[in-house]
Amino acid sequence: LWTLEKPYLYTLKVYTFKNGEVTDSDTVRIGFRNCKFTPDKGFFLNGKPTKIHGVCMHHDMGIFGAAINYSVLHRQIEIMHGMGVNSIRTSHNPPAPELLDICDEMGILVMDEMFDEWRIPKVENGYAQYFDEHAESDAVAIIRRDINHPSVFMWSIGNEVEEQRVEDGARTAQFLTDICHREDRTRPTTTGLNIIPAAENNGFFDAVDLVGLNYKPHYYQKYHEKYP
User: Fold this and answer.
1) What pLDDT, in 10s, does the model give residues 64-95?
2) Fewer Cβ atoms within 10 Å of its own Cβ: the N or the C terminal residue of the chain?
């Protein structure tokens, strides 16, 4: 099994045939593990209770810029792993494939985050201008690209989106959750909520599998009791 202590990986060779001849092939690394979230005892990995010690990792290479430099990225994650990190939230965008490869190898769980913005813009040139046309196809592309990584254990459909404030905002959350469930029946959805209790009142808490609260620890006990 793939575990945090021994992240065992297999190499899967895939072939397509036509009239008995190989027309294409690919090599995919996979791992086998079981993830389970429980209301009262927390998260279990392969039946073992596991505390999630996570960080938000922005796509930033410092002076190296945003283009992926594998050795720099590996060093970043190696340092965090050495200080006890066993989980990364890819804030607030889909991760580079190289990051997932490294997390597969090191035994680090990943919250794979898709969007920082939905229909209501946060900034002038943000994703809102593309959401209606591309949100579904982008979400599908992300899930299908990342689904074989054993490190990915939940999908985050958004971060602090402005739809928390509006009456029908949860409809978009449900729309994205439904896409995730259609494409992947094994992983739960979550979203980073920070406008409390507005997000609860308009149905956001019911539109995801795992209620995600950014900051505001004084709400944790209350909402755990209401939405275990």
Assistant:
1) 988 999 999 999 999 999 999 999 999 999 99
2) C
Active site residue 98: no
Q: Which of 105, 160, 162, 183 is catalytic?
A: 160
Query: Residues 164-215: pLDDT tens digits?
Result: 999 999 999 999 999 999 999 999 999 999 999 999 999 999 999 999 999 9
Residue pair 54/89 in contact (Cβ under 8 Å)? The answer is: yes
pTM over 0.90, yes/no: yes
